[in-house]
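Q: What would this complex look like in 3D?
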Amino acid sequence: MRLINKLIFTILLGITTLFAYSLNADSAAAVALSGSYSLRAAGYEANYWNPATLYKPINRLLLLNTNLDIGNNLLSTKRYNDLNGTFLTEADKDRILDDLAKSFRLEGNVTHNLLGFAYNRIAISSKLHINAQGKLSSRYFELIMKGNEFDRQYSFDESDTRLSGFAYLDLTFGVSPYSFEYKGVPIHTGLALSYLRGLASLTTEKYKGEFFVSNDGAMFDQEAVINTSLGGSGFKAMLGAMSQITPELAVGLSLDNIPGYIKWDNEVERRSYFASADSVYIADLDELILHTDEVAEPLESFTQRFPLISRLSAIYQKDKLSLSLDWSHAYKQGMIGDNNSFLALGAEYYLTRFIPFRCGVNIRTRDKGYSFSYGSGIEAGPFLFNYGIKTHNSIFLSPSSNGLGFAVTAELDLY
Amino acid sequence: MRTKILIFVVLLLLTIILSQCAIPKPFEGLGWNVDLNVPLMSKRYDIRDLADGENLIIENEEFKLIFEDELETEDPSHFLKIDPKSTTLLPIPPLEIGIEIPLNIDETGTSDKDIDITFAKIREGALLFEVTEVSAELKSLKIIFYDIFQENGEPVEYIISNFSDPIHHFPLENHTIGIEGMDSIFDNLKFKVIPVFESTELYLGMIRIFFDEPLWFHTLKGRLENQKLSLADDEIEFSINYPYNLSNVIELHTAEITLNFTNQIGFDAVYTGSLTAYNDTDGKEYTLEITEADNVVINRASDIDSPSNTIITLDKPDIAKLINVFPERIYLHNSELSIGNLDDSNGFVSVADRGVARFAISTPAIFKLTNEPIIPDTVYVIQIDEENEGFIDEFSKSAVLSFNVENTLPFGANISFYFNEVSDTLHIFNPEINPENNSIVLTNRYIYPAVAEDIPSVTEVDLALDSNDLSLFQKENVYFAFKVSFMADEELVALKPDQYIKLIGRIKLNTDIEF
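A: Here is my prediction, written as structure tokens for the whole assembly.
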């Protein structure tokens, strides 16, 4: 292989293995606590976790909040280095296919808060979301590494092979309008409404792939329908409730995306790609009839929906230590955004009054992946600075890690 | 404040230290071994497709070998004649009423061929009147033709008044003997000679009526006996490419000759002739004689404008022997018609009349098989492009060639496959001639007969190839051919149009993939 190809391949592998496969992480503290953050989110952050927490008198102004993560579900630096230059054994192949599960996934997320302000049970925030993800069915890898079986049909669809990406802005208004007591226990409620401004979208509406080798020859049939748009608008709403059962223990519930959608209606186009051939034999390649077609058609609009997500959360706080648990469940897969369900545990300990140490673990139920995270921060007067790092499949960021999530946040307390 | 910053920095450093940043090594390559199942070919050989519409046809859903030719009779003019007969001079008496003189034209007894005329149109010939020893008192002779008429049916009279030359010539072209519609046979042509004279002498001279050359007819009606009419020899070549040795492999059970004869001649005919079949490839020939004993009788035309059509089928065993040569050409020779009357009715013939014989030798594809190998002369080629040559050379370790044979034929067969880098069959079938040629031989793989009439057998034939064998497939062209030996028994088997053999090939290629 030419040197330049090797170089490109190395760089691409490096990028995919250096960065994390992460949750839809938010602020630095949320990253550091692996998403166990519903009852910790305070101020404008409550707009994205549980608006009921806006009842707390935290008046805060966002200065900076940026989160970045890119990753894949297959290659860590260590695995890449271990496999690099080797001849794969059957055990190597089996391990790779086991780790891939249903598909090879490559995903990138960037979120950047443009605005964040909370004052007296009301919060206004705005955030830029950029997400790109690609999936390639593990059966493609199986075909490449193990070859094809005779009389076996290999089928692929958009659930395991797809390409999607989108960017949108939200402008969110959150409020904790009402608190009451039930049997002596205070219960706080919250509501967050978001206007979503779609910037760009590329979605795989349909992907169908079939490959079959039998006595009737080789057959393949590929169809991909991709929708693109350069603008749209949408809406989402979140309801939340929480209760401080005891001074140490609080529980909460939020329902996100009721509803949640973006209707893309600007420069919308549907592109369909077809390729098929059947009864292909080596001896008759000169008679091969390959059907290919590409059709572009304007669309009036298409709508992407966010899955309904419920978050159950609890936090126990005693002196400098707090422990929290979040169970987040997405009710439908294959939709826009992060559709994973997860269980997150987070712990925060204040080494001094102003310096917290945070760590967390997140276990994803769909792909059995897990991640560890940690982070810290400093409160210097009214200024708060936090950072968080998350690593996948490794306690610390190491060559065994599949990637990295990183976030920094700077805020100003308005006291 | 300094303490805060110090603790924060310590935590940050601790994070970085715990984060063992690792840099991917430059890509050094990756490889693995994989089994690829690749479809090679799928060919269905339908028996129906063997039909070429010429020598191999399908008739009533039965498969037939058929050889056809058409022969035409020669011009019958050679026997449309009567030959001169001997005549004598007769005295011319001085009678005003004249005398009648007959001219014998009866062919009876002159040869084994007989012609009896009821009507004839003369194409060529002349009557001669010899008048000698003429008295000076004879002024002229008036000769009335009783049986010869002008073309328009008018009677003919001939007057001779100049006796200086004893021979008088009367051309008969386009004259007729008799009048159409008369059935009486002319054994003699009668003439009346009436003299014009001035005295009463005892005789006025001597006269003879005769013809010294045959009278050739354009048309003749009457009776014929044993007139021979040849058909032109002909050799027909067939476009069938029989596999080598086919004639030793297949013994066709029955065959028949169908003779379709269109006859413009108004006489019956009996056909005789010879057919010799040649298979030059196998060095075989056989001659079939069709004799009078075969009684190939061709009907006469009913009238001049209505030729007859006679279809005769011969199915004697010798015809199967002829066809079992699997002829590449058939020579039809010594063909002849014996023309004549088979009953008392009169016939007709003219010089333009012809007989056309169409031969069709057909055999239903019902046969016995022998153990002899059959060798199709087709050499197949697999073209391998440079990219695949390199792929096989560099990465392929082994392969299994699998052929799945679906057979609806009612007999089994042993098939041997021969692969070689050269295309001529001598080297393909005899790789030991030049061992330096890459070759693969797969011998005697048994293909099962059909399970039942509509249920094919399926036989799998595998050929394992090691890396040495695979080197053959690094050639630009790989040639292969095969031999077939059928499993002989005494049972008759039949080829039917719906039968087929389907050959499906695939390769399981074990190969290393390397980047």
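A: To summarize the key features: Confidence is low (pLDDT under 50) at residues 1-25 of chain A. The first strand of chain A starts at residue 60 and ends at 72.
Q: Very helpful, thank you.
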